[in-house]
Design brief:
7-stranded parallel sheet, 30% helix, 320 residues, alpha/beta
Amino acid sequence: MRKIGVCANFVNETHRSRINAAAEKAGFSVSWFESQAALGEGISDLEVLFGYIPPDLLPGAKRLRWLCSASAGVDHYMDDSLWPDPDCLLSNSSGAYGPTISEHIVMTALMLLRRMPEYQAALARREWPYYAPIRSINGSHVVLLGTGDIGSHTARRMKSLGASVTGVCRSGKSAEPAFDRVLPTGGLDGILPAADLLILALPATAETVGILSRERIALLPSSACVINVGRGSAIDQEALVEALQARRLAGAALDVMIPEPLPADHPLWDCPNTILTPHVSGNMSLGLTCDLDVEMFCRDLARYAAGEPLEHMVDRARGY
């Protein structure tokens, strides 16, 4: 029988039952691996893989035809030499993370605009301050760099709170109605001076590395806040630190950075009005994310078994 290997530490019994039922219907059996080490020992006869699959195990997957990553980011699979067959399919779980990451973005945006980092620092000193004025998402201009699942979910939430929302992406197009307008990446420089909140939700590709350059950071107004939930490589981090330290920016919320974990002596720790989180805006801490991830795999499994295109197919040449 055709075999599926699952190595995903977030699955519960309901998820297992759902995957087992979908596999049986599609003509597959499922092998469950409790660790990546165990997966490495049994990977050679698996046709399909789902979960968190270390790239260095792929050369041993001699019968692999499809890898479904439980993550949205798949930049670690872009090395063609890893794949036992160049025609192997790769899909991701973009679509599972929009709700949780967009809520993280709204949370940190409100914290920055309502001066929570300043309040937290003062209260840690047992002081009782009153900081005014504060700012609101209502009436703010939000620039979203990345209009995919995360960007679209964020646009809806920001729009509902009264913001105007400009999306920026490679194509300059999006079907999401919450965007007031969508510009191609070439239009980014023209919109940055009008941004109150600049939010980056980009995959790691050659085109996105350093996209928020020193020159573009300088285009932002001093009242702007930067939020990054995509990849740390998208920002010139040294330039961002300098801008925050000189208060040429109002603040930043970074869930991703370089390197991770951030060294204890890194200057980002001490930047004013800066919120750092250890790459936790997504992950599998929200039950809904886990449910969506499994449901998406099961839908694509039915498509794969029927010889139909995968819903969440990754173009390895483009990186997403």
